[in-house]
Design goal:
Helices cover about 55% and strands about 10% of the residues. The protein is of the alpha/beta class. It folds into three domains: about 80 residues, 2-Layer Sandwich (Alpha-Beta Plaits); about 70 residues, no CATH class; about 150 residues, no CATH class. The strands form two sheets. It has a four-stranded antiparallel beta sheet with strand order 2-3-1-4. A hairpin with a 2-residue loop joins β2 and β3. α4 runs parallel beside α6, α7 runs parallel beside α8 and α9 crosses α11. The longest helix is centred in the last third of the chain and has 29 residues. The chain is elongated, with a radius of gyration of 24 Å.
Amino acid sequence: MTLPASWLVLIASLPTAQTAARMRLWRALKTAGAATLRDGVYLLPEAIDAAEAFAAQADEVRAAGGEAWLLSASPVDAEESAAWQRLFDRSAEYAQLIDEVRAADPAGWPSSQATRRMQALWRRHAQIVQADHFPGESQRQSQAALETLQAAWLRLTSPDEPQPRATEIQRLDAADHQGRIWATRKRPWVDRLASAWLIRRCIDPQATFRWLSDTAKCKRDWLGFDFDGARFSHTPSRVTYETLLASFGLEDDASLTRIGALVHVLDVGGVPVAQAPGIEAALAGLRDHFTDDDELLDAACAVFDGLRRALGTDKNAEEGSA
């Protein structure tokens, strides 16, 4: 691993009475993954986001009546640089999480708590990753342990979910897939609803959907999705929605890709997405209300339409402020 040639140092001093400001500073620096050289002296490998994090905290310190300096520093040699890197070692945090994950038994989780427990473990992993400036084997092991637990949990709670298959995704032309019949399992949930919305909005606007109680009855000329043996389904790294994105060259659309991250975490777990709980709650309400799957899809499309507009607006705002 190439070590940084230069580092950023934040020196901060707050009045003794500013206990709340001191706690806010500590929390912000912990989230940013800063290392502590000594009391009031903090270190990050030089990068744009590191500079922004330190500058923001320097402003906070000054606003609270303290003093702050932001410096650039270079180690005297490679040995010193390696010593600074060791201050950022997250292996103990990953090890603690891995032990907890491996000790977990989804079969013993109360059904009312299972989803929250799984999501909490993924959030812990994401928090460590966010603060891990030198990712290595510990991060990979933590990810693998969580994916193994997630798969075991899904086998218990959703035995009919398709199993990922290792296959090369072929790039397809949407023009060759117009006016087709698309088939999936009945009573669609997040991945199937999002996939059907994507098909209708971006791939085949004239699509007709068939909701199957038995996927073996999917006809040869129908395009199956999100079940074992379907034309489009899970791969080791993608849920069905993401497979469709890749198959039809839609991954360059930032809003569609961001929806993909949300669908992924709701379907198989992974890095949390802020909007995911709200979208899950909205879709659950619709699924309880509509017994007809075509009506359910129509209502869900309105949810995903709004989400796409919101995510596109958020992205545009980010680019405008850059």
